[in-house]
Structure formats: structure tokens, C-alpha cells
């Protein structure tokens, strides 16, 4: 299996491609990473060096891959942090290039906009591009709860509210929607939910909430979920495996007292999670 992953990248730590590429490779997937930014570390440290790459560079890199004659063998495109609306345009152009070469290829968009703790933290033009162009183009969408509310334009305080927001996003195009970091009125204080829908069924995986604050877990879950989907797993199983793997990685990270997710140190959790959480049907 081959994937084109167009995301941010950091030299130190694990967010964007630095969080997605290794887990995908550990599952035996050939990944073609194209970076939208090149930073020394993620901005959560308060200071970083590097720069946002320009849209022309993203287009040029994908064009170069196309010139190798391999886009027809690409099974999917994964996108994450875009940096600017112009880079978003370049990513969507790249999706179109791949799908022209291989109409069966799927596009998984992780619509990075922000989170409940920090609010919107992307360029002001990016959310509109997500709503108007990226969501309709996506086959698979992996927002967190905050991003789902932004895309659907409605609150998700209860599980029925959240499912209604998922339906609103489905109506814009994506066949499969995975919502991460979910906490509704039905979620216990010591737990965290993830919810997936393919229009026909809706499922939830609930895990204990770990006392841990790290960046990049959502990027890794999106990559793992997409990989399992492309591996012919149904959405509920793909979510259960992805969430279980990241719970194991995060638990090991907590035990080690690390500020960065331990993707390498806990890599066996990626391949065979030590604790598998089951998915339950919800409505």
C-alpha cells in the first residue's frame, strides 16, 4: 500500500508527518511525505524556528512524484495542517492529480483548525477553505470535536447533537467521519470518546482519560485509522484499532514522563496494541 502524506513536519518531536509517517511505515505502508511547514519543534513549546513552505514547493514536489509515473499506484492521500489557504489549494490540486491517475484512491482530510483549549490556531483563511473545498473533496474526514463544531456550525454538547453535526458534515461529501477527543454530557469525567460514522452505522470507542498533555496524538490516530480503512477494515474496527494503539502509546509516554509521544519506544503498540477497546453502536 502506498500513501501520499501532505502535512507539517518538525525536526524534534512528533506532530504532522513526524507523527504520521513512522506509524504508517510500522504497518508496512510505503509513505511519500510532503511537508507543508518545516519547524524545529511544534509551537506548543512557545518558540520554534523554521518556516511555512510555499504552495509552489508543495505543487513542485507532487509534480516530481508524478513524473516518476507512480501516482497510479497511490492508494490514498492524507492531509493535515495546511499553513495557508494557498497551501490548501496546492493540496487539493494534488488530490485531483492522484485521483486522475487512480480513481480508486481515497482522500483522508484531517481538518486541522484548532481545539477546545486554544480555539482556532490556523491562518484566518484556512477554516473557510476547509468548509468550502476540503470537506466536499474528502472521502474520509477526521476532525476533533472542536473542529466538527466549526465545520458543521453547531454545538455538540450531547451525543445526539454530535451525531447531528456528523450528519451535517456527511451531507457535504465525506463518506466516513471519525471524531476524536469527544466529551459530551454522556461522557464520564474520567473518560474520552471517539465516534465514527459511515452514514449507515455510528460507533463509539471509550477509553480512560490519561493525565497527559502532548501534541500529535490526533495526527497519529488519523493516519492509523486511514491505514486500517484502506486495509479493508470496517470503520468501527479501524477506529478501535487506531484508538487502542494510541492509548497504548500514550500510556507508555505517561509512564516515561515524556513531553513527546513515544512512537519509537512504544512502537509495538502500533502493530499489536496490548489492550484493545471495543466499539459500541450508538444513535
Q: What's the helix and strand layout?
A:
Elements: E1 2-10, H1 17-26, E2 30-39, E3 50-52, H2 55-67, E4 76-79, H3 85-101, E5 106-109, E6 114-115, E7 119-120, H4 126-137, E8 140-141, H5 145-152, H6 159-170, E9 176-182, E10 191-197, E11 202-208, H7 217-230, H8 235-256, H9 268-271, E12 280-281
Parallel strand pairs: 1-2, 1-4, 4-5, 5-8, 8-9
Antiparallel strand pairs: 2-3, 6-7, 9-10, 10-11, 11-12
Helix pairs in contact: 1-7, 2-3, 3-4, 5-6, 7-8
Task: Provide an overview of this structure.
- The structure is a single chain.
- The longest helix has 22 residues, at 235-256.
- The protein has a single domain, classed as Ribokinase (UDP-N-acetylmuramoyl-L-alanine:D-glutamate ligase), CATH 3.40.1190.
- The chain is α/β, with parallel strands linked by helices.
- Helix 1 runs parallel beside helix 7 (217-230), helix 2 (55-67) runs parallel beside helix 3 (85-101) and helix 3 (85-101) runs parallel beside helix 4 (126-137).
- It is globular.
- It has a ten-stranded mixed beta sheet, with helices on both faces. Strands 6-7 form a two-stranded antiparallel ribbon.
- It is built from nine helices and twelve strands.
